C-alpha cells in the first residue's frame, strides 16, 4: 500500500512540475503532440449525449418519489483499446454488445491518434462516444470517471495503470482485463517489479487472458487465481464470409492440379517482389496462378502495367467476368479456366471471399519500402492474416507485422503461418507449401486447429456483460 501512495503522490508532482509544462512547450513546435491532450487530462465534451443522460438522471430522481413512474438509466460500458490492433480486436465485441444490449451506452477510448482514427472509421456509428483514455494521474482519472460515470470498464489486453485501478476499485466500478496477454519481454520487466504490480492486479474485478501461457504469467505476477480465467482470443471470433453455392466466387470448377497464390492487401514495392517470386516458381509449378489484390485501388493501373511487363498472360477481374455470367454455375466464362497466369483483383469487397479459392496467401503491408506507403522505417505493420486462415489457407508474410503480432505469434507456433525477411525466404516458403503435399495438409490442418483453440472469446465476454447488466 505504501508503494501505491508514494506512486500517487509522485505522479501528481511529476505531472504538475515536469510533464505538463514540458508537453506544452514542445507542443508549440510540434502541435501533433498536443492532439487529444485535453481529453487525456479528463476534460471531455460529450455534447448532446451528456445532456440526454443528465435529463435521465433528473427523471430518475423524480421517479424515486413517484412509485408509478419507472425510468431506467442506461448501463454505461467503457472499453479501452490502446491502439490500432486492439481496436480491430474489440470491433466485433462492441458491435455484438450494441446488438445484445441496445439500451446501453457504449464508450470507446484509445491511447493513440491512429487508434482514434480507426475507432471512428470502424465504430463511429456503433459507439455513443469515442475519445482518449485519461493519463494515469488522479485528477485526470477522477475527471473521466465523474464525466462518464461508467458502470463497468473493460481494458483490452494489458494496460496496467495503478491510479486508474486504485480509483475504480475505491469507487466499486467493475474493472476487467479482457483478451489479456503479456509478451515475454513485458513479463520480464513486470516480474522485477512484482512487489508493485501484484497488489494492482488484485484491484481488478477479474482478468481474462487469451491463453494458458498468458494465464500463467498473470498468476505468477500476482493476479488472483479465483478471478483469473482463460477466455480465448477475440481476434479469432470473426465471421467467415459467405461462400455458399449461391456466392459468385464459387461458381467455377478449379482444374485438378492447379495452384493459386493470392497476394492480398499489397502495398507499394510488394507487387514487384511477389511477381519476381511468382516467375521463378512458375518454372517449377507449371499450372500456377497469381492473384494480386492491392490495398489501394488507385494503384491498380500501375500494378497492371507491372504485370504486363512480365510477358505472362494477365487479366483484370473487372474485365474478365461479369456478375451475370457468374450466376450460371460452372460457367464456361470461368475466370480460372482462362489461360491467364496473372489476375488483378481490381473489384471492391471481394478479397475476403477470394481467399477461399487460393492455396496459399501472401499477406501484404509486411515488407517496408523506402518511398512506399506510410514508410517510417518499420513499415505498415501488416494486415489481418485470419481472413485467409479462416478458410484453412496457410499464410506467408514479411517481417513488418506489429499490428497483428499476437496473431502471428499463434500462427507461426504452428505451420499455419510463416514470417520471412527476404525475397528468397518468401520463395522457399511458398515453394514448400505448393510442392510438399504432406506439409501443406499439415499447415492447412493447423489453420483449423488455431481457430478451434481460440474461439469462443466473444461469447465469454458477453456472458460477463449479461451478469452485470441484468
Please, could you describe this protein's structure?
The chain is of the alpha/beta class. It has two domains: 181 residues, 3-Deoxy-D-manno-octulosonic-acid transferase, N-terminal domain (Rossmann fold), CATH 3.40.50; 206 residues, Glycogen Phosphorylase B (Rossmann fold, 3-Layer(aba) Sandwich), CATH 3.40.50.2000. It has 20 helices and 13 strands. It has a seven-stranded parallel sheet with strand order 9-10-8-7-11-12-13, with helices on both faces. Strands 3-2-1-4-5-6 form a six-stranded parallel sheet, with helices on both faces. Helix 16 links the parallel strand 11 and strand 12. Helix 18 packs across helix 19. The chain is elongated, with a radius of gyration of 25 Å.
Amino acid at each position: 500500500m505504501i508503494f501505491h501512495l508514494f506512486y500517487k503522490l509522485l505522479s501528481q508532482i511529476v505531472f504538475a512540475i515536469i510533464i505538463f509544462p514540458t508537453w506544452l512547450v514542445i507542443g508549440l513546435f510540434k502541435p501533433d503532440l498536443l492532439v487529444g491532450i485535453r481529453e487525456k487530462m479528463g476534460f471531455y465534451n460529450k455534447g448532446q449525449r451528456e445532456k440526454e443522460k443528465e435529463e435521465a438522471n433528473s427523471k430518475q430522481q423524480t421517479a424515486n418519489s413517484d412509485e408509478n413512474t419507472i425510468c431506467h438509466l442506461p448501463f454505461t460500458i467503457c472499453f479501452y483499446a490502446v491502439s490500432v490492433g486492439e481496436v480491430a480486436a474489440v470491433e466485433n465485441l462492441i458491435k455484438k454488445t450494441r446488438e445484445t444490449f441496445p439500451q446501453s451506452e457504449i464508450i470507446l477510448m484509445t491511447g493513440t491518434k491512429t487508434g482514434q482514427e480507426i475507432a471512428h472509421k470502424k465504430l463511429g456509428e456503433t459507439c455513443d462516444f469515442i475519445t482518449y483514455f485519461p493519463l494515469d494521474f488522479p485528477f485526470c482519472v477522477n475527471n473521466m470517471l465523474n464525466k462518464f460515470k461508467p458502470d463497468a470498464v473493460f481494458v483490452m489486453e494489458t494496460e496496467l495503470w495503478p491510479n486508474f485501478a486504485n480509483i475504480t476499485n475505491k469507487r466499486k466500478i467493475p474493472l476487467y482485463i479482457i483478451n489479456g496477454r503479456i509478451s515475454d519481454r513485458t513479463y520480464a520487466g513486470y516480474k522485477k517489479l512484482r512487489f508493485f504490480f501484484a497488489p494492482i492486479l488484485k484491484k481488478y474485478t477479474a482478468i481474462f487472458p487469451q491463453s494458458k501461457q498468458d494465464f500463467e504469467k498473470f498468476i505468477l505476477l500476482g493476479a488472483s487465481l479465483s478471478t483469473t480465467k482463460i477466455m480465448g482470443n477475440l481476434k479469432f471470433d470473426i465471421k467467415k464470409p459467405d461462400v455458399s453455392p449461391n456466392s459468385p466466387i464459387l461458381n467455377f470448377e478449379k482444374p485438378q492440379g492447379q495452384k493459386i497464390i493470392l497476394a492480398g492487401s499489397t502495398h507499394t514495392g510488394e507487387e514487384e517482389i511477389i511477381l519476381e517470386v511468382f516467375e521463378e516458381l512458375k518454372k517449377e509449378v507449371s499450372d500456377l496462378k497469381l492473384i494480386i489484390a492491392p490495398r489501394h485501388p488507385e494503384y491498380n493501373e500501375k500494378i497492371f502495367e507491372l504485370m504486363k511487363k512480365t510477358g505472362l498472360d494477365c487479366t483484370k477481374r473487372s474485365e474478365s467476368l461479369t456478375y451475370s455470367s457468374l450466376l450460371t454455375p460452372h460457367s464456361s466464362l470461368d475466370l480460372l479456366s482462362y489461360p491467364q497466369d496473372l489476375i488483378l483483383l481490381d473489384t471492391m469487397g471481394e478479397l475476403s471471399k477470394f481467399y477461399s479459392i487460393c492455396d496459399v496467401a501472401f499477406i501484404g503491408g509486411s515488407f517496408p519500402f523506402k518511398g512506399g506507403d506510410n514508410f517510417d522505417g518499420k513499415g505498415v505493420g501488416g494486415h489481418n492474416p485470419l481472413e485467409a486462415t479462416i478458410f484453412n489457407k496457410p499464410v506467408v508474410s514479411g517481417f513488418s507485422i506489429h499490428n497483428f503480432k499476437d496473431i502471428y505469434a499463434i500462427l507461426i507456433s504452428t505451420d499455419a503461418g510463416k514470417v520471412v525477411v527476404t525475397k528468397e525466404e518468401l520463395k522457399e516458403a511458398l515453394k514448400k507449401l505448393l510442392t510438399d503435399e504432406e506439409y501443406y495438409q499439415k499447415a492447412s490442418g493447423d489453420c483449423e486447429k488455431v481457430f478451434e483453440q481460440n474461439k469462443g472469446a466473444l461469447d465469454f465476454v458477453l456472458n460477463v456483460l449479461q451478469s452485470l447488466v441484468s
